[in-house]
Design goal:
CATH topology: TIM Barrel
Shape: globular
Distance between the termini: 20 Å
Strand content: 15-25%
Number of strands: 12
């Protein structure tokens, strides 16, 4: 069973003001635990796609790539077999090109596994959102357009309530965009606060300096983000050990994304799930 964080009170209030539809969609998307107490951090194994393969980058550098699998669909089945209750997919080519570029792999994964899948990378238009949701993706992570076209993102959040996640990638607390190729002057927490009243389902916050480095997450930055908004925040970057997950659980974070540590064997998925109980 997928155990998810309870919808924040403010989010439920916004949904009721909108006629209740958002409340229904959000509760359904959050799963059975949405109406009960929070029990654990969500563990999202990451599948990063580039050229139809499963890869990992170091600190978002496309020149520092490691290929972990030629068949992303088989990798998705592997994580689900080990107990994954949700999967985090990233279209790295799409993030760079500004449009989805690994749709065959994404569709194959969604068809192959019976767990919620979210996708980020290259999602910058309404028709793209509609197309991806029709593929069966549970939710979509949108980053660059939120900072470059805030009015459009506001409209999309209300057009697709409970289906969009604000993806914030940051270097030293500043928002990075366009596949991490550009760094803005916008503070990550300020961007999150700007959209905190929207009917989104979560914020995915990536600390680029720790991503793919197997050196532990930036727990202080993650805690700061979780404290800044009344939305579930999913931590990303540097999670390497079960102790790292316990530290995030102590914040407590709503969830965390794990990539290289799982692929290189520093952390097993069963151990990650066991460590995810909130302190």
């Amino acid at each position: 069973m997928l155990i998810r964080a309870r919808p924040p009170v403010a989010a439920l209030s916004r949904g009721l003001q909108a006629g209740g539809l958002y409340v229904i969609l959000l509760v359904l998307s959050l799963g059975p635990a949405a109406g009960g107490s929070v029990e654990r951090v969500e563990i999202w194994p990451a599948i990063d796609l580039r050229g139809g393969r499963c890869v990992r980058l170091e600190q978002g550098d496309y020149g520092r790539e490691t290929v972990f699998a030629e068949d992303p669909v088989a990798m998705a089945r592997h994580w689900v077999k080990l107990g994954a209750e949700c999967l985090h997919l990233v279209d790295l080519d799409g993030a760079r090109q500004g449009r989805p570029a690994n749709l065959d792999s994404v569709e194959g994964i969604v068809r192959a596994v019976d767990v919620p899948c979210e996708l980020g990378g290259g999602i910058r238009g309404e028709e793209t959102i509609r197309r991806l949701l029709k593929l069966g993706l549970s939710r979509l992570v949108i980053g660059t357009p939120a900072i470059s076209r805030p009015d459009w993102f506001h409209r999309m959040c209300n057009e697709f309530p409970g289906k969009l996640v604000l993806g914030i990638d940051a270097r030293e607390g500043r928002v990075a965009t366009d596949g991490w190729l550009q760094t803005s002057e916008v503070a990550a927490t300020d961007l999150a606060k700007q959209f905190a009243a929207e009917p989104m389902c979560a914020v995915v916050y990536t600390d680029i300096a720790t991503d793919g480095m197997l050196a532990g997450p930036n727990v202080a930055a993650m805690a700061e983000m979780q404290a800044a908004v009344d939305l579930p925040v999913i931590a990303s970057g540097g999670v390497t050990t079960a102790e790292d997950i316990r530290k995030l659980a102590a914040v407590p974070m709503a969830g965390c994304i794990i990539g290289r540590a799982l692929y290189e064997g520093n952390l097993t998925l069963p151990d990650a799930l066991e460590a995810a109980v909130w302190q």
